[in-house]
Amino acid sequence: MAKDIAKSAGPRKFKQADEKVKHVERKVKEGDAKHKQGAGIYKWGNRKESVDQKEPFRKLMDQGARKAKLELTETRKRKRKLHYEIEKEVISVWEKTRVRDIEKDERAKLISQCLKKMKGKMPEMALNHIVSRAMQNCVKYCTPGERKAVFEELRPHCLSLAKDKYAHHIVIKMLDIADKAQLQQMLSLLHGNVVALLRHPYASPVVEYAYTISNAAQKLELLSEFYSPEFRLFKGLNTPGKGRLAEFFASEPAVKKRSVLQHMSLALQPILEKGIVDHSIIHRAIVEYLSVSKKSMIAEIVQQLSGGLLARMLHTRDGAKIGVTCVMLGNKKERKKIIKGMKGYVAKIAQDDHGYMVLVAILDVVDDTKLVTKIIIKELIKDLNNLALHKFGRLVLLHLLAPRVRRYFPADVLALLEFSSSTVDDKDFAEEDEAMDEVMKTPADTSAGSKKSRSKKSPAKKAKTEGGAEPMDEDKDEGDADGSTGVSKKDPSLRRSELLSKSGLAKDLAETCRANAKEMLQSQWGSEVIYEVAMGGVNGELWQTIPGAILSLHKEIADLATIENQDDEDVHIMEQYFSSPTLRRLILNSTPPPAGVEGLSFSAVFWSVALKTKCKRWAQGHR
């Protein structure tokens, strides 16, 4: 465009044309600058310079406004908080006591100052999130006399403090440092409020801690509030041998059982609906409820707990019992929810002191092996080495290799797997209903009922006499539509084969044992796993699927026996405390491979590789 203007201008007007060209080029450059930088920045460039010049004045104005805002906030806090100035002083003194290298005398002096400032105002000041921490620190390091004074001042307010977000921590601290007399006083405050406090998100940890540190009699008193308001007053409740509901009901009238179960159901339902299932006292109450309930009542609890709630209960012994009961008596849908609720936590549950029992129950009864493989077995394979060396994790693997062997599994765990459905028969409840009706009847009703009973049969007996089908009882338990309620239809050996071999667990486990043979042989728990794998599992399951891996493991173990010690700290596997008995068991129980598998027995391999021409040396050893 600029060149066209220059050509049309002619020689006389060259200067004018040249000026026009420059003007056009300048406009084009300005347009490009606007396009790249944005019209706003270009337009307000001068304003930006003025803003930069006023920046120091703005900073001064901001500092003044900030200072005024802080003063306004302080004024509002003084009006809103009754002891605001004292709280500030206490916090400043508490900060000095938190120094690591502070002397004991200096800290005791500062703590005494804090307690003097808070005296008479502790219940109100404990609601502050920082003062609550300072108060806990003071209770921890103060003298016994000062601690007793704090206890006496806070004890009447413990129920209200237990429900506060911050103050409930000081109540737990008081329980922690209380002596026997003070603990009994604290427990007396909880009586009559245990169930209500357990429904509160902040107060429930207080009740749980009180239950944890109590003795057996005190635990029973706290637990009895789930039964009924009158139950703890029954004569003989605390006598020896009557710590469980089933034992208590054995010598009590059947009428009491119905009222207690109704009260327990009303007490437990809100707690389960809120999802507060982490506490051991709740687990104990549910176990007691299940021990005296009929199957239809248990089915309601199983339905509520199936899913993520159950996975949060497996850290206690009673919680694991509840989990095993839910797995054993749940239907197909409920078992599926339970397994899916464990997704991502299988390895952690397997290594828990009690949670492993639930995984063992799942491997023992769940027929849906595809689901178990997808969630349970898949996560076990990712952490096989750690599980094989763990005290409880190895039991999950051993249950597939050597199911229900008393050498590995405790007797109570085997009893739980054998008969977890220790429930009351519905016939007992029918007898209780009849007893209840007899109690509630008047003399006139009794005489009229006796005449009717002579002339008229019950519907069930009448139908049975006439050859018809019995009428359906409302309390009678029926199998689920999928026919899997509390029952495992699949053959145990077939289920075990699908979980162990088809899932790939056997192959990975044999490879893990071969790669870590020395570590596992010298481990108290890993030696049991490598022994069962080397023996081929129950009924020779591994010999049928991975014979090559088993023979390779035999060769690896024999090769380890030929390696001499590298230093004084290293112990030979034939002399080590755990590996030596394991090798002995392998040799004594060694059998030739099954038909169709080419190879030698473990004893033959070990003789030819490790012992031949070396018997004199090892015969002189103590192992």
TrEMBL record:
Residues 1-21, 434-498 are annotated as: Disordered. Residues 471-481 have a biased composition (Acidic residues). Residues 488-498 have a biased composition (Basic and acidic residues). One of its GO terms (cellular component) is nucleolus. InterPro entries: ARM-like, ARM-type_fold, CPL_dom, PUM-HD, PUM3, Pumilio_RNA-bd_rpt. The keyword Repressor does not apply. Residues 95-494 form the PUM-HD domain. SMART domains: Pumilio (SM00025). One of its GO terms (molecular function) is mRNA binding. Pumilio repeats lie at residues 153-188. Residues 451-462 have a biased composition (Basic residues). Keywords: Repeat, RNA-binding, Translation regulation. One of its GO terms (biological process) is regulation of translation. This is PUM-HD domain-containing protein. It comes from Ceratodon purpureus (Fire moss). The lineage of its organism: Eukaryota, Viridiplantae, Streptophyta, Embryophyta, Bryophyta.
